[in-house]
Specification:
By secondary structure, the protein is of the alpha+beta class. It has one helix spanning about 35-45, and strands at about 5-10, 15-20, 25-30, 50-55, 70-75. A hairpin with a 2-residue loop joins strand 1 (about 5-10) and strand 2. The relative contact order is 0.20.
Length: about 90
């Protein structure tokens, strides 16, 4: 089963905050949405298979009708396509 990550906007009396969550648990808080999305994408790529749902400032919880974007990460990313014996493919 895929791990679920999300980026959601929350308003609090002292700040406007973007939350990065995994399976509902808050992992980090960010002032800028692009920073929160970058971190959530990094985590989701490293934990494939996974999904990342990115919400908007309307406060709708990702997965509901207000979800803005859904990204799927089906396999671990990696640019090093080395062989099992440790040598690199030519």
């Amino acid at each position: 089963m895929a791990t679920r990550y999300s980026v959601v906007f929350r308003f609090s009396p002292d700040s406007l905050t973007w939350l990065v969550r995994r399976e509902g648990a808050v992992l980090s808080r960010w002032c800028r949405k692009r920073d929160a999305v970058a971190e959530a994408a990094r985590l989701a790529r490293g934990d494939a298979p996974s999904t990342l749902t990115i919400g908007g400032m309307d406060g709708d919880d990702p997965g509901g009708s207000g979800a803005h974007r859904l990204r799927r990460y089906d396999r671990p990313s990696g640019r090093d396509l080395g062989r099992a014996d440790g040598t690199r493919a030519q």
